[in-house]
Amino acid sequence: MVHVPRIAYDCDVLVVGGGIVGLSTAYAITRAAPGTRVTVLEKEPGVARHQTGRNSGVVHSGIYYRPGSLKARYAVRGAAEMTKFCAEYGIPHSVTGKLIVATSREELPRLHALVQRGRENGIPVRELGAAQIAEYEPEVRGLAAIRVRTTGICDYSAVARQLGRASGADIRYGARVVRIDRRPEHGVAVLTARGDVVRGRVLVNCAGLYSDEVARLTGDEPDVRIVPFRGEYYELARPELVRGLVYPVPDPAFPFLGVHLTRGIDGGVHVGPNAVPALAREGYGWGVVRPREAMATAAWPGAWRMGRQHWRYGMGELRRSVSKRAFVDAVRRLLPAVEEGDLVRASAGVRAQAVLRDGTLVDDFLIREAPRVVHVLNAPSPAATASLPIGREVARRALAALADA
Known about the structure:
Layout: E1 11-16, H1 20-32, E2 38-42, E3 58-59, H2 70-89, E4 93-94, E5 98-102, H3 108-120, E6 125-129, H4 133-136, E7 144-148, E8 152-154, H5 156-167, E9 170-173, E10 177-183, E11 187-192, E12 197-205, H6 211-217, E13 224-236, E14 245-248, E15 260-263, E16 269-277, H7 291-299, H8 301-309, H9 311-322, H10 324-332, E17 343-345, E18 349-356, E19 366-370, E20 373-378, H11 387-404
Parallel strand pairs: 1-2, 1-12, 2-9, 5-14, 12-20
Antiparallel strand pairs: 3-8, 4-8, 5-7, 6-7, 10-11, 11-12, 13-16, 13-17, 13-18, 14-15, 15-16, 19-20
Helix pairs in contact: 1-5, 1-11, 2-11, 9-10
């Protein structure tokens, strides 16, 4: 008879990443299975320091996403749940609705396709002619638009903090993961940069910008790489020009929504983002360069194949990054009254975009399982909107792994 030593586990489920998806997962686990011990390891001194706390705060309706996809299902469900969660806990939020505006004839078929997609996803949509746009946005010009009334805004950082409190999880800050020892018969042991060892029965990887690296630390090959795209924003110095949320018609070939106008929960109006490759996973400006990370991205065949496929689109984004005039021209398609002096630089975000080996940008949420671990490998926008349903799905898989442990 083989003697198996008894292990002193620090927790049942160990979550890597204190963004909104990781905290929603912790919240869902303790709601579904009270008494389950959850520890969250977050490398920053607080939660929501990256994708969660650096977006435009939009609660997306789900109109853009392929019917039946996780993004479509979870965003539609998540928008309603997020609004309810904010109301329950007194978190600032508002259901504002938004306009998606076609400014050229070439965009009209795509706008009509969005109407059909919205209806397939169960989203109420109103079609507007050019004159009707002014009912909602007097300064916005376009040939046609659609009004999506279920879109809103909220404070996602406050949501993340509340999820952490309500989960009852042990959240450890400054706990950057440097090594993971996973053994199917014993569970996982994680070494942090401070020298602490944390042991759990099951690990959940919600590391966002580093999710592929954490997957490899567990011994799994995710077959995707996170390619970071910086989203650069401006603040509108004349916020009175915009009443709510105004979006262009997106290009369906890309997961980015284009430069849009977003009145935030604080009353200010964000303009952006564009999307340019970042030279570091936390590359919030051109001056932030981490050679090891940049070289690792360049070494992934999918990054080069993506570049070859989409170089024209990428050049347009780069031009708007280095030229404020080009950025203003993009905004003027929707808001002709805007002047160059109306745009003031605001803080940027970085999108953690998973890219396949063949250069395909993963366009849906991607969750994979392996013994004793659940990996969330692609959770960019609308993951904040969809975080409550995503958290329940990840929690379901983690609890199933725990039952099998």
